[in-house]
Structures are given as C-alpha cells and as structure tokens.
Amino acid sequence: MTSSGMPPPTQAPPPAPDPDLYQCINAIIAESGGHTARGAANLTVAMVGLSAIVAAEQDRLREKDSLTASLSDMPAMRELVTNAQLFQVLLSMLSGNSHHHGEGEVKPGRKRSPSEDSTFNVKKKQMLATPPSTARPQLNSVRQISQSSLTGTNASTGTSDSAIQVFAATILYCVLQHMDHWPVQLMSKYAEDAFGLRTWVDNELCKDIVANLELSLDSFEPIDEATSLIADEVESYFSSLACRAQTNGAEVQSATRVTIASQHRTPSAKEVRAQSRHSETNDDSSSSGEEEILESNSMEVDPITPHNKDAMSNNALEKLFQRSSNSKQRVRPRYVGHNLDLAFETISDALTDRLASKTKQNSRLLQMLPRFLCIPRVRCLSSRYLDRWLQSPPLAALARNLLAQMTKSLPNTDLNADDVEVIDNLLKMKLKSNQSPMHIESITLIAAKIPTLAVAKQIFVHCLAGDTTTDEGAVMNPGHLHLEMLRSVYSVLNSTLAAESLAEAVVDLTSLSPAKSHSSVIRTVVNNISGFDAFTFAECIVQSKTGVSKNITTANECARLILECAMLTGLSKDDPEFVSKMLSLRKAMLRWCVTDLGALYAKRIAQEEGARCNDSYDGNGRVTRGPAEFSFGSYLDSRSVDKNGPMHKYMIVVQSLLFLSTSKDLKAFVGHEFDTEEFECYQVCCNYPDIIDDGMLEIVLESSPITHSTAVALVETLMLGCSTSVVDIPISSRVIWRLYDLTEYVPEFYPEFKNGGLELPHLANSGLWWRVTVIALALCGLSSTVGKTMWNDHPTIRGLIKMTTSQKYRFPTADCDEAAREKIRMEDGKAKEREAEVSEKLFTLPKEEKPVEAKPVLKAPEYRQGLRSSARQREKRERVSVIEQERIAAAKQAEQIKIRKQLKILAKSIFLCEPKQSARKPPKESIDLILSVNDEFNLAERFRASNDPDYLLQTIGNGRSAIERAYDWLIPIISQDSDVINRLQPSSTCFLLLKAYGAGADAKDLIALSAPLLSHVTKSLSGEYGEQNSVLALELLLMDIADESADRRRCARKVLQQAIPNGFGLCGWLMQLMSNSHAKVLIPLSIVYLGRALAYERGKVLSVYILSLHKYGRFMLEHEIQHNFDFVVEVCRLLSSRPHVCVDAMNISSELQSLILEEITGAFEKATKGPDADLGPKSANDEMELVVINVPVNDHESMTKKIIVTVCLVRAAVVVASSWRNAEELNFNRLLGYLIIPPENGNVHKPVVSGLASAVFKCDNKPTASIEDVRP
Questions:
Q1: Which of 339, 737, 873, 875 could serve as a FRET partner for 955 with CA atoms 20 to 30 Å apart?
Q2: Maximum CA extent, the chain
Q3: Where are the alpha helices (DSSP H) in 951-1045?
Q4: What is the pLDDT of residue 157?
Q5: What are phi and psi of 1187, to 5 degrees?
Q6: How many CA atoms lie within 13 A of 1196 on its CB side?
Q7: Which helix (H) or strand (E) holds 390?
Q8: Span 842-866, mean pLDDT?
Q9: Residue 112 in contact with residue 104, Cβ under 8 Å?
Q10: What's the CA angle centered on 134, arms 133 and 139, to 5 degrees?
Q11: Judging by DSSP bridges, how do beta strands 910-912 and 1183-1188 pair with one another?
C-alpha cells in the first residue's frame, strides 16, 4: 500500500506480442490434420494470428498506391500465393475435410479417404454470358471472426469448426480480392459446401467471397485475347502450386504434424517415444493408401522460415495481381474463358459426388440447384433425378420450380451433348396423370425457346416411338399424352420447321422398323395437327431418303414411304398454291427416282440393252458396239412395252411416285389395297398429272446414272400425265433440242482402225430418234410456243403435224403438189443412201485388194498314147472342179445375202441426227406409235384448234389448188367443228363448197357434211359479214359460172341455188340478187360474169341468163348505176356467134324469143331516127350501109333513108327472121320490113336495090350478103 494508505494502482498487463507469421503458417500446416482438442486450439490460435497479420497488412495496403510494390512489405499475402502447403491447407479447410467427413465429425482413430487431387483434367466448353453484379458489400470479417474465435463461439453457427472454415474463406478473400482471376480449386470448394451443409456459403461473414463466386457463374461476357492469356497463366500457376504441395510431401492431411512449440523447445520423452512409434509404423500406413489419425504429436519437420520459403519474382506477382478496368469493383467475375470452363467442370464433379451419396437432405439441394443451372452438366445431372423428385410429395414443389428454371436455362442455340440429354430425360419422365399438362407445357416451352431442327426432331421421335412399340404399330388415340405433346409442340413451331422435323422423325422411326407400315400412325398425327404443311413434310422425307438406299429392296421400301407421305398432300387440296407446291414435290421425287432408284436399276437395264445390241450386230465390223435395237417400244404406246424387263419394274415405281400409275400397277407396288381415305388422297394428287416444266425434264437430261433409253422412257412417262391438259404446259424448245442428244450414237472403233479415216456425220439410234421426235410432236400439241419453233425449224415435225392435222398419213404430205413431192422424195432417198453407206463402212470389214495375177497360159495337155482312162479322169476332175466352184460361189452368195440382210437391219438402226435437215419419212414401224400418241393426246384436235400458230391453215395452203387437194379431209373437219370456217378465207369456203358439190361419186356424202360451209356462204352472200365478203364470195362463185368447165359451171349453179334460196325455179338466185342489200354492187359484178357465161351455156340455162341480163339492165337504169352494159349488143353478139344455140334457146322459151325480137326491132327503129343513131361501137369491120326502103319520109312512101347499123345487128336480125315461126307477130313484120322492102306499086320490074340486098360495108362498099342470103 502507499503512504496514503491507498493500495497501489494495478499495473496494466504488458501488450501481447505480435504473432509471428511463419510460426502461424507452420502451426496451421501442422495442425490442419489433427483431431485433438489441443490441436484444434493450436490451429485456432494460428488462424487468429494469421488473420491478424493479414488484417494489418490490409490496413497498410490501403495507404499504398501500387499493390505490386507493396507485396514485398506484406509477407502474409505473399506467402498465401507462394506457399503451396499453406494454400492447399486453406482450401482443404473450406470443404471441412480436416475435421469433418460428410456431415459428421471424424472420430480419432478412424480412417478417411485421402485428400482430393488438386489437378484437374478438364475439357473446354462453350459458355453463355450474363452481366455480372456490381454490388460492393462491406467487409470487416477478419476482426469479427478473430473476436468470435477467441471467445469460443462463431457469429453464425456457434461452433469453432465452422469458424475455421470462415477463417479460411476470409483469409483467402483478403488476398484474392486484389486478383482478377481466382483459382479453380476455390470454386470446387464452394460447390462442395453449396451442395452439402452450406457451412460457410450461407455465412454472413463470407458474403463477399460468395458474391464473387456466384457472379462468376453468370459471367459469359466475351473477353479479349490478352485477358484470356493472363487468365490461363494464373490458372496454370495455381495448378502447379497444388502439384508442388503434393510433391513436397506437405499435404494438409499428412500423417506428420509440426507443433508451434517445437520450434522453441526440445521434445519431451513422451514425444520422443511417440516419434519412435510413428517411425516404426510409417511404412505400413503410407503403403496402405490411407492415412491414420494419430493421438499424439508427430515427428518434427523443418519449419518454414523467411529463409527457406518459396520465392516468387515480382514479374510473376504482376501476373497474379495485374488489374483490369473492373478491378475497382469489389464484386466482379473472377473466372473467364477456359478458367470458367474448368470451374464449371469442378461444380459438375461436386454435384456428381453429391448425387451419388446416400444423403437424404435433398430439399437444400433442390433449393440451390437453380443457381447452378447455367452449367450444362449440372442441368444434365439434375434432369436424371427430376422425375423421382417430381413424384416425391415433399420435393414436388421444389422440383416443379427446378423444372421451370431448367427449361428457361437451356440455351436457344445449338445444343451440346449434355443439353440433348436434358431434353431426352425430360421427355422420358414418367409422371402422374395430373402432372401431364405440366410435362407437355415444359416440352412445348423448350421447343418454342429452341426452335431448331434437332430439338424438334428429338421431341417428335419420342412422341412417335412411344406409340409404335407393338408389332402392328398402335395408332395414337386423341387425348393421348404423346399425341397431345406432339400437337402442342407442332403448334408453336414454324410450319416449315415443324414439317421438316416431323419428317426427320418419321424417317428415324422407319429406319428402326423398316418392314413395318407406319402409315396409320402418320395419318393419325397429321389429322390431329392444325396447319400441317404436307408438301414440306413430303419433300423432307424425300431429302432424308436420298443416298441411303443400298439395294433395290431398300430403295423400294423408301419409295413406299415417300409415296405414303406424298399422298398426304391430298389433304391440302384447298391450298391456293397447291399446283406450284405439287410441282416442287414432283421435282424432288423425280430427282430421287433418277439419282437413287435409277442408279440401282441402271446396271440391269444396261445389261439387257447390251444383249439386244449384240443380237443385231456380231462385232465383225470396224466398231466394237452396234447401235441400239431398232425398236419403237415407247411408254406413250403401252402396247409396245416389254413388261417383263427391269425397265418396266423401274417405271412402275416412278409412275406410282409421280401419281401416274394405273390401279393394277399401284397395287403391285404398294402391296395392298388403299383404304377410303388413302384412295381419296391419291385421287386428289392424280388430278394434277400435267404439272410439268423445263425443270423436270432437265432433271432427267442431267442424270448420269441412268441410260439414254431410260431417260427417254422417263420423259415419255412424264408426258403421259399431260394427255388431258387443257392449257399450254411451260416447256421450251431448248429442252427438245437437248432431248435429241439422248439419241446420239457414237461408234467405238477397234484399235486397229482408229476411226478408219472416215468422216462420219452426226449419227443417232433410229428408234430413239423417232421416239424423241414423237415426244416433240406431242409437246407441239401441248405448247404453242414449242409448236411454233418446231414448225419453223424442224421439217420432219412439220410434216408430222400436217399428217396429224389432216389425218392423212402419207409421205410426202397431202398438201404438197407434184413438184414438191418429187423434191421431198429425192432428199429422203439421198439421206437413206448416206445412212446405208455409213452402215456399210462401220459394220463390215474393209475389202482387201487382191493383187492382179496374170492368167496362166493354157497349154495343150500331153496325153500318153494308149491310155484311154486319162481322158475320163480329166473329165471327172473337171466335173468335180465345176461342182466345187459352184458350191463355193453358192456359199459366198449366201454369205453376201446374210451380210446384206444384216446391213439392212443395221442401216435402219442408225439415223442421221440432224433434226433441221429435210423432212424424213417415218418408218412403217413407227406408224403405230404416232397413231397411239395422236389418240392419247388428241393431237389432231389440238392442232386444228390452235390459232397461233394456225396449223390448219398452214396445212391447207394457199390457192384453189391447195383447197382442191385438201377438200376431202377438210370438209369432214368443218362438219365436226363449224368454228373452223371462221378461220378460213372466204375464198376457201367457197372453193370447198364448190368441191363438195362436184366430188363425183362421193358428192352425196360430202354435201351432207358441207352444211356448215353452205350456211357460211349463204351468210356471206346475204351480206351478214359485210359488203366486201359478200362481193368476194359472189365473185368466186361467178368465176365458176363463167368457167369453160361444164362441171364447174354446174357445181357453181348448185351452190348458188342452195346458198341464195328463192322460189323462182332454175337459176332463181339471179332474181334474188336484186333484193340483196348490196345489190347495187353485186348486179354489175353479175352482169360481167353472166355475159361471159353466155358463150358456154345453152338451152334453158342460156335463156334464163339472157332474161336475167335484161332485167339487170333495167335495174341499173332504174337505180341510175353508171355502166357500159347494153343488152341489145350482148344479144346480137350472142346470136351472131352462136346462132343455132340461140335459136334452140328461143324455141324453148317464148319469152326469150319475144324479148329478142322486140329488142332487135327496136334497134332498127332507133337507127332510122337520125343520121347519127347507131347501135353500139362501130369499127372498120363492124359497120355497113343499109338502104331501108318502105320508110316514109315526109309522108312519101317512095322515099328511103340510109342508116348505119352493126353487122351483129344485121346478122342477129337475119337469125331471128330465119327462125321465126309466127308470121302474125307485129314485131316480126316490122323487122321483116327493114330487111326485105317490096317493089313500089307492085312494079317488080323497077330496078330498086333496097333492104338487106343493099347492105354494104361502109369501109370498102362491098356487099355484105347476096340475094340468096336474104330470102325469107
């Protein structure tokens, strides 16, 4: 006590010495594997010391500007990143392996598994990026943990063991927070604790390190190459650090232990004994592969001091602590690039171990799993257990959330193998019926989020395969889970993608069971899907089956599947684009038939064709191979097709796929009868067989696997479908010219000939050439564009069109005149001669020129005298020699006949392949094919109905001679189609009608067929088609009225009598013309030709013509029509030139007789009225002077007057007067008074020269007639 009696003040305890860094490190390393209370206390003290040192260094670091420069003053931070043993011990503390195994504490003396290997053999995986969080939580955990540890409690859990883990996490974060890239081992420890007890992951004091780790899971931002290289170097460093920890024998769970006090004192006896016992058992424990937990202290090891610690250069530290632009953010992604992939791998491994354990605490796991679903492997592992979690009532809610999050976490790009398995596991989940809507919804969301072919196909395969497990292939019922799932998924996909995916699924399904028919399942699915794109589906089936057939059997199976799927397009018959889509589908199927199916059949077909070539050519010529068989077996004529060969089997499949097959062939191909629905779909597809264009033909032309004859047969098959087409098909002439390339024959010469020095023309196989020509003929009927080109550029096609149009199959064609026929025959003959010459050069060997030998000189035989047998033997030898020569000559002749016969056949098999050459005569073997094509395509009607080009008019030709050559086939055509008349020229109509009425023995039939012609001519003459047509028609008929030919005049009268109906009897049409609306034009025209006709007609016809001319003349006067017609002149000329014919006509018709008498008498009266009065034009030889007596002048009968009249009038008057029988006729007496004047007052002796006797020519005053000529 002090003097004041007060007790002395209490002395403050001396401050605790600062902990030694290296003592703490050695203690932590040594005690990390201990399980005693003392070891735990020592470890806690060391951890507190190290935490304090790190905290102090953190305070100093805040005062520094450069982290790298400050590390030399911060040994704790430096040790943590350079000391391999310390780094590994701290990491092992995070997983609780030092004190815990699984979920319970490890008891002393128990064995435990060796510490996990820190080396990672991982694969790089592609990850997606999400933006990291930029939160900056406050951290003061070092001091908090130190305080709680010293008091023996943990701020979170109240246990000292968890405090060790929190200590380790905090110490690591204090150092690693300054680094942009963290070690992968840290992420592994985080995953272990997150999937396990969550000892430090959920601790509030570790929220900063946890926030950085969690943010790294969502870090998928792209990085530059420099950052990636730095991250790889950092990871490489930490991996090597872990390896050094193992190789140095300083692992955390080592059986040796170094105590803190061992550095300051000598070991006790007990410790020495313990060390001795440890030395004795060390070999056994280390060789067992397990580590023993010892009760006592271990042998001493060299402690870590500043002098023997691992050194690290500042350059290496710069790599670790190199800062980026984001380094100021406390919470930021710490794993990028390859490091992130490694981190994901470690997380996946941790989850694998967790799921493999028997722990039942799955609720925490299901709560934590959504946070890790961004990792593909985690999604895959979780999906394997999802169905059992969903069916567990305690876990169902968490599992549903996990399912929803898993669906959302799937990437919307191409999936890796893990995600493919995720979808597969989700599809295979077997849930309760009340969970089916959730199941379907999840799968639908996946399909909507990842609209790729692979995902949709995977779903559809599962849905289809789920109901086809039975041998018969069970049909899905409406409401079935798989059908509802398929329908739901199909509805959210693009129609094209959905159809493609379903097609791929069907192909996979059929590949599993190729012998089974899946048509019922496919149709059930299609009928329950809305918006099904049948065309895309069928095309995808075709595309999927391309290149998969190895033999004909598998190819036929593929063809049946293609047909079943293609028939579904019949359900889309109301689609406005049905035709265009069907064309695209037909192209796809045709391409498959050519490339896949055709390639398999090609070898068999080629062998069969080669055998036929060998039958016609024995190879004894200059070439190795002869031309193709001279055959016209075409699929355009089914009767000529060989139905037993491989070609026909191939064509049955093609026709079935292209919807061109007959019911019999279709049944043989499919193998069963179609049900009602299938038959209706097939019929809908068959309703559009004419869907064809250049593209389809080019597919055939560009095909290499098939032979040329097969290609021609394919084109013929395609053409069959167009036989009922009513519109032009879109085919160009360019394709036709390319078709002729298929007919080419290229001779292959034997090596010794080398083309033989021959200049060969372009050759073709005759049968193929004519088959292609018939195809071109059919295309001309189906396309006016093709027809126009072929008509102009292909003479043979032109001739065939003419034959087909006229139905006169003769060569040259019916429209040719004699000169044209002769020319065509000559050109065709030259071409045949050229072909025969070429065939002889190709198929026979060149003749060897034998050297000319001198004839031996016959010498008289020297006979031995006295031998009579020599003469008989000589005669016998001569007879034998003659017989042998005859035999040799006969053999040579037979051989020559055989060769000529073979050459004739071969000459027919080759053809000059020049389509633009002169017209060629079709072989008689091709006539059946041409006729069959005409019937199949109705070519005659098509050609006749064509207007552009107008094949009918061009076949008829121009002029009357062309009509006369065409009337016998043209009139029947007109009788069937009266509209043809409107395309004919008016002249053609009249000519045809005239020819019909003058056809002789066939006239009766032709007249009956010519009713449309008669109607047309009648309308033309009546003016219904206008004045011009009326005039032209009448003029053409009148030309025949005035023709020299009696038959033509007779036919023309018949035609006019029928065309101009009237009630006036014979030639009543003449009177009816005056009532025509165009009479003012027609009457003058009729007068001209009737005047000409007077020179040829006789009898009643002549009388009618004359009477009509008289009426026409008055008609023209009444209507004041300007003309030069004078009836009297015409009659006088007629009487003058044809007196007897006219007299006969007048005897027949009294009306005509009176008319002529009146007109001639009037002409004489007119001439007496004045000196200038005359009758018609007068010439030097047509005038005469006639003194007329008995004409009173000024009431004096004895006075006469000279008048001038024409000779024709005088002669006509003489003819009339001489033939008159009725003397009481007044006009006759008047006329007679002009011709014969009696003597004055009966004085017959008065020499008066008057009347006809006084008629003399005016020019030379010579008498025109003698007295005898004018006697009455």
A1: 737
A2: 234
A3: 951-956, 960-976, 980-983, 986-997, 1003-1009, 1011-1022, 1027-1041
A4: 36
A5: -85, 120
A6: 6
A7: helix 376-390
A8: 54
A9: no
A10: 110
A11: unpaired
| Helices within 15-158 (DSSP H only) | 21-31, 37-62, 67-70, 75-82, 84-94, 141-150
- Residue 238 structure tokens: 């930490």
Element (H, E) at 910: strand 910-912
- d(Cα 1006, Cα 711) in Å, to the nearest integer? 46
What phi and psi, each to the nearest 5 degrees, are found at residue 53?
-65, -45
Residue 642, number of CB atoms within 10 A of its CB: 11
**Within 13 Å and on the Cβ side, how many CA atoms surround 9?**
3
How does DSSP assign 1091-1137, residue by residue? Answer: HHHTTT--HHHHHHHHHHHHHHHHHHHHTT------HHHHHHHHHHH
d(CA 449, CA 453): 12
First to last CA, the chain: 216
Tokens 């070429």 -> residue:
838
Assigned token pair, 700: 């055939």
Alpha-carbon span 266 to 364, nearest angstrom: 50
**Banded pLDDT at 267 (limits 50, 70, 90):** very low
Structure tokens at 601: 């059949």
Contact call for residues 700 and 715 (beta carbons, < 8 A): yes
Query: Which DSSP category does 495 fall into?
Result: H
What is the pairing mode between strands 910-912 and 1201-1206?
Answer: unpaired
CB atoms within 10 A of CB 1238: 13
Nearest partner of 1125 among 1136, 1110, 1137, 1139, judged by Cα: 1110
Predicted pLDDT at 23: 82
Nearest Cα neighbor of 47 from 78, 74, 26, 68 is: 26
Q: Which of 24, 64, 30, 59 is nearest to 45 (CA)?
A: 24
What is the three-class DSSP state of 403? helix
Q: How far apart are CA 995 and CA 423, in angstroms?
A: 87
- φ/ψ of residue 219, rounded to 5: -95, 105
Beta bridge partners of 749: 623
- Token reading at 181: 């890239």
List alpha helices for 288-375, DSSP H.
314-320, 337-356, 362-372
Strands (E), 512-667: none
Task: Give 374-422 pLDDT, tens digit per residue.
Answer: 889 999 999 999 988 998 888 889 999 999 999 998 888 778 889 999 9
Residue 389 CB coordination number (10 Å): 21
Would you state the structure tokens that stand for residue 1004, as one six-digit string? 């009766």
What is the separation of C-alpha 860 from the centre of its chain, rounded to a whole number of angstroms?
A: 90
Give the C-alpha separation, 277 to 257, whole Å. Answer: 14
Q: What's the length of the chain? A: 1272
Determine what percent of the chain falls in helix, strand and coil, rounding each to the nearest 5: 60, 5, 35
Contact (Cβ atoms closer than 8 angstroms) between residue 361 and residue 205: no
CB 386 within 8 A of CB 406: yes
For 399, 439, 440, 490, the CA distances from 481, given in Å and listed in that order, are: 21, 9, 8, 14
DSSP label at residue 151: T
Max mean pLDDT range (139-143, 940-944, 1228-1232): 940-944
Class of residue 557 by CB neighbours under 10 A (exposed 0-12, middle 13-18, buried 19+): middle
Question: Is pLDDT of 190 > 80?
Answer: yes
Task: Name the residue type at position 78.
Answer: R
Respond yes or no on whether the N-terminal peptide bond of residue 514 is cis (omega within 30° of 0). Answer: no
Cα–Cα distance, 1029 to 1053 (Å, whole number): 19
- Taking the whole predicted model, whether its pTM rises above 0.85 is answered as no
Q: Give the 3-state DSSP-derived string for 779-807, with helices as H, strands as E and coil as C.
A: HHHHCHHHHHHHHHHCHHHHHHHHHHHHC
Cβ-count burial 475-511 (b if 16+ within 10 Å, e if not): ebeeebbbbbbbbbbbeebeeebbbbbbbbbbbbbbe
Q: Which of 440, 370, 379, 387 is nearest to 411 (CA)?
A: 379
Residue 289 zone, left/alpha/beta (φ > 0; ψ -120 to 50; rest): left
